[in-house]
Amino acid sequence: MDTEIQIMIELVRSSLNGGTPALVPGDEEGWKRLFHLSRKHGVVTIVNDAIERLPEEQKPKGDIALSWALSADRTREIYSRQETVLKHIQAKSAAAGLRVIVLKGLSLSRLYPTPSSRACGDIDLYFPGAYEEGNRLFAGGEKQLVGKHSEFEVEGVTVENHLHFLDLHYRSQRRAEEYIRTAAESSGCGSELPPYAGMMFLLMHTISHITATDKLALRNVIDWGLYLEKHEDELSPAECRRLMEHIGMTASFDLLTQLAGDITGADLSRYIVRKVRQRDYERMRRLILTKSYSEHVPKNLPIAETLKIKVGRYRQRRWLYRYLPATTSERRVATFKQVLRIALQKR
């Protein structure tokens, strides 16, 4: 697996920077493993861009070559469809006097050399100060809030209309939410968040992917690196540091920036005030690339056994919690509440 990971990163870097990959699989089985790994990380088409520039003798052959080509075509087809629907949404919103901000996938795709290579899921939107109006305009009425957003379809494409940008469990998330919302609603930046608000939102979003058990976060780390690189004229390192101190996420900022620079090949050193400890860097890199920590706690265990596992896992992951949006006390309270809820459910 480590070999495929290194090859995947090499090809991603080549795709982003236009270079020639120095490392490729040596046989068909290697290409198959690389394909499945790239698909897990959402970078199949980005990797395929680099493959297309390889000498013919180094390219994959046969069925696996067809799998790469079909996946890339499918990614671009979905992207084209979403772009068409987004233009319809923007035109209809403008006609109704509503400003709409595009979040995540389609917005971030503009950072890539070939935007359609960046696979996108749903269309994520934010109507500044007009959440309900957005629902009425495109869904014919109020929609049920699920988590941070409501969800509906526009011409067969799923759209998420955000009431909140972030989960609001911890103080850092609430402070970030307040800053992003204020910037979005007071800015005339059009269809994207202002640079500092976009930076803050992307950092918190990337952290949430790292901790999600069913999502591998490589693509999000690539997004982070490209965002900092492409907005270097608009993002002052000193102001980035001040904002990260305000929300208590300086360690996360430094770690993700260091990782993103190493993976994308971009020089992001101007943003890094303090290099993180090497052991944490290596742990986080492996976590992002393999999700090796994401074991589940079995259900229906006795409460004492559940508590033992939870406490043990907390001790094992103390290094990780330094980089997540929660203070030590908030994390302990959240763990206690979770165990208490499990205990009450078993009564």
Describe the structure.
The chain has 347 residues and is mainly α. The protein has three domains: 90-163, Beta Polymerase, domain 2; 165-292, no CATH class; 303-345. 59% of the residues lie in helices and 5% in strands. It contains 15 helices and four strands. It has a four-stranded mixed sheet with strand order 1-2-4-3. A hairpin with a 2-residue loop joins strand 3 (149-154) and strand 4. It is globular. The N and C termini lie far apart (44 Å).
Helices and strands in order:
Elements: H1 2-17, H2 28-40, H3 44-51, H4 62-95, E1 101-103, H5 105-109, E2 123-126, H6 131-139, E3 149-154, E4 157-162, H7 171-186, H8 195-211, H9 218-230, H10 237-247, H11 250-264, H12 278-290, H13 303-316, H14 318-321, H15 328-345
Helix pairs in contact: 1-2, 1-3, 3-4, 7-8, 8-9, 9-11, 13-15
Helix content: 55-70%
Helix tally equals: 15
For the termini, the CA-CA separation is: 44 Å
Shape: globular
Characterize the largest beta sheet: strand count, sense, and whether it forms a barrel.
Answer: 4 strands, mixed
How many strand elements? 4
Q: Nearest-angstrom radius of gyration? A: 21 Å
> How would you classify the helix and strand content by structural class?
mainly alpha
